[in-house]
Request: fold
Amino acid sequence: MIHFPSKQPQVQTTIFTKMSQLATEEGALNLSQGFPGFDCSEELQELVRFYAKGHNQYAPMTGVPVFRQSIANKTNSFYGVSLNADTEVTVVSGATEALFAAIHCCVSPGDEVIMFDPSYDAYDPIVRLAGGIPVHIPLNSSNGFCIDWEELGRKITPQTRAIMVNSPHNPTGAIWSMEDLDAFASLVKGTNILIVSDEVYEHIVFDGAQHASVLLHPELRQRSFVCGSFGKTYHITGWKMGYCLAPPYLTQEFRKLHQWVTFSSATPLQYALAEYLKTPAHYLGLSSFYQQKRDLFASYFEGSRWKILPSHGSFFQCLDYAEISNESDVDLSVRLTKELKVASIPVSVFYETPPEDRILRFCFAKNDDVIMEAAQKLAQL
Ligand SMILES: Cc1ncc(COP(=O)(O)O)c(C=O)c1O
Reply:
């Protein structure tokens, strides 16, 4: 028998895979995993067909130049922030790769990385794989998952190498404001702390709010890797196309990592997106598109025993079931998938230490008929 201890003994099949599998087996409406239940536009499909001819060899390691320029231009027109496409923009295979390369290029064994729970499931294992020490700060629903800046201040030590930011937030739908960025900046100012900012839901914010990107704050921007994804914005999660925006001194190190992970990403997809990105209408309508779905889903729970938690962004709605059941959220989500045929994600899995909260996360990036059928079933409980 060959001795082969796992490098990640704590890592198991993700809850997303488990719940999606269960949803398929049970023939349940799948509001668990975060992907759209509808296709991307015909126009984008046509662009891929067009660029699949003659653009089928390796792309440059950093991304095809017209694509990087297109990303820089879009960032400029959306945020009013100017980026150098050659030294600050890198194309990667999904935000997952951006997170992996950003964390690995800056975290050395023994370094601490602070993250707020509930936190996206990739952060902790990536930090551990780099030899780093994840430092979890739990947030809770009673104050809208707001960050206690004083507590963050107390958790920062001389070993703190980086802090993970995720706004709009998966799974809670919480968003950071410009005031949050100010409070955050005053804590990291004068330190060598870096920021890995996961902004994959940047174009999905509700009720007229503006996405507060760390790019908008010079104190934060100079120390940030901004990880983005086209999957959420253009309904193409299966393409695994993303990018990392970072100042040149960080981009240089980021690219050293990226070249050993994937080297480069799918060439025809890069050309297609380079063109598609040029039309702001392709992403500007996204917030209202998803706000309508959020409101449709939530409307079924008014007057029910479910408590609707605020969703300010992303395509997730959290519901508190404390009045309905004493079961753990994992047990309830499994039971609802089997009995009610509606799949969800238990929020406790996003915590290092599961909280008292009894909350399930539902993805409303689905066709309206699916949203209505699922909500109708759930609201009866
Ligand atoms: C918060 C967050 N970050 C990163 C990702 C991964 O993005 P990608 O599919 O582009 O790798 C997701 C996908 O669900 C996400 O929700």
About this structure: The pocket of pyridoxal-5'-phosphate is lined by residues 34, 94-96, 120, 166, 170, 198, 200, 229, 231, 237, 240, 242 (CB under 6 Å).
